[in-house]
Write a sequence for this structure.
């Protein structure tokens, strides 16, 4: 396997937990990344973006005072955002379906479930490299195209003003070919739905299930 | 999707900055090296987890003593447990992730807390202490599985 050389990419890691930042940074270094900046919360990260030309942001969800979703929305739609198109990977233990959809609707590119692995991180980076997506501005949403896979059976009206042919780097079918086996290595990330009262209505999704949900 | 939606091509994409193959490209060895880095950090993880356990004990104490708004106190417990859940499996402490997850799931559905709920939370905190104290990595082996089964029984009883 010979894959991508990541040495020219700038990564911004945003996490309020220094141990997780150290872990992600170590993984990226081992994958050949040379330029990595860390930020302890969303507000700091937003400031850093003014002078750090991030190519990819890896962002935790649970942070205070500005959490990961707030940060993503600021990057995407803030009037003073220095880099509204930057790819963002949301890193989180919140893997219930509604949480995944919430992250998607805030404008993230990819979603990486904790616990993390080197393979899992690289898989998400590779998906971003191989599948550049157009951005959509629709109502209050601004972010990467959420309709990632073309549906050949779609018969409804085409409501987008621009024709797909105008878009460079067509959306095409994406990362189902890139299914990583993170959860095969690490075991399912599913939460408890046992007798301790785990909420059976909102089961947590494995990384494969998240990928399928986001790519379907 | 509203009628006035607009498709915008980003000014650049990562393909302009990466090459495939050649020296320095990610390969199976690089992935293996990265996984090894994680394994090497596992020794540090135990110390990090001990720091988190101190925070968890403090959050638990505040909850038990009612030192503030209950919602905020529960959030304090949840946040530490959530961090520990995320970190555990990343450092080959899947059992910590499993117990941390159970604690998160318990706390997030609580609206109010009485002695019974405090007792249940205590059981999970104790289990997390045992996992780190005994360095029960992986799934904890036989001891870990006994711990999980014991947890279920204790939580149901309390």
């Amino acid at each position: 396997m010979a894959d991508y050389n990541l040495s020219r990419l700038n990564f911004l890691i945003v996490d309020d937990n220094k141990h997780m930042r150290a872990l992600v940074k170590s993984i990226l270094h081992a994958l050949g990344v040379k330029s990595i900046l860390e930020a302890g919360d969303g507000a700091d990260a937003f400031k850093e973006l003014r002078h750090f030309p991030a190519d990819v942001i890896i962002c935790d969800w649970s942070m205070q005072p500005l959490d990961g979703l707030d940060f993503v929305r600021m990057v995407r739609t803030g009037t003073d955002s220095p880099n509204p198109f930057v790819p963002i990977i949301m890193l989180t233990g919140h893997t219930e379906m509604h949480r995944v959809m919430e992250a998607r609707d805030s404008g993230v590119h990819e979603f990486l479930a904790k616990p993390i692995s080197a393979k899992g991180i690289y898989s998400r980076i590779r998906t971003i490299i191989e599948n550049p997506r157009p951005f959509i501005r629709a109502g209050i949403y601004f972010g990467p195209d959420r309709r990632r896979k073309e549906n050949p059976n779609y018969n409804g009206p085409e409501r987008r003003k621009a024709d797909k042919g105008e878009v460079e780097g067509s959306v095409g079918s994406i990362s189902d070919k890139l299914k990583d086996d993170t959860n095969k290595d690490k075991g399912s990330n599913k939460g408890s739905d046992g007798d301790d009262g785990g909420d059976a209505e909102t089961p947590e999704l494995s990384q494969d299930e998240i990928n399928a949900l986001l790519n379907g | 999707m509203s009628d006035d939606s607009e498709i915008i091509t980003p000014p650049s994409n990562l393909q302009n900055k990466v090459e495939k193959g050649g020296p320095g490209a990610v390969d199976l060895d690089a992935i293996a090296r990265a996984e090894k880095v994680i394994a090497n950090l596992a020794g540090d993880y135990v110390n990090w987890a001990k720091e988190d356990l101190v925070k968890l004990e403090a959050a638990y104490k505040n909850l038990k003593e009612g030192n503030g708004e209950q919602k905020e106190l529960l959030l304090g417990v949840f946040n530490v447990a959530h961090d520990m859940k995320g970190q555990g499996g990343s450092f080959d402490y899947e059992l910590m992730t499993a117990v941390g997850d159970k604690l998160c799931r318990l706390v997030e559905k609580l609206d109010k807390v009485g002695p019974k709920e405090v007792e249940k939370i205590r059981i999970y905190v104790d289990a997390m202490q045992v996992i780190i104290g005994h360095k029960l990595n992986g799934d904890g082996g036989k001891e870990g599985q006994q711990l999980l089964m014991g947890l279920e029984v204790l939580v149901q009883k309390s």
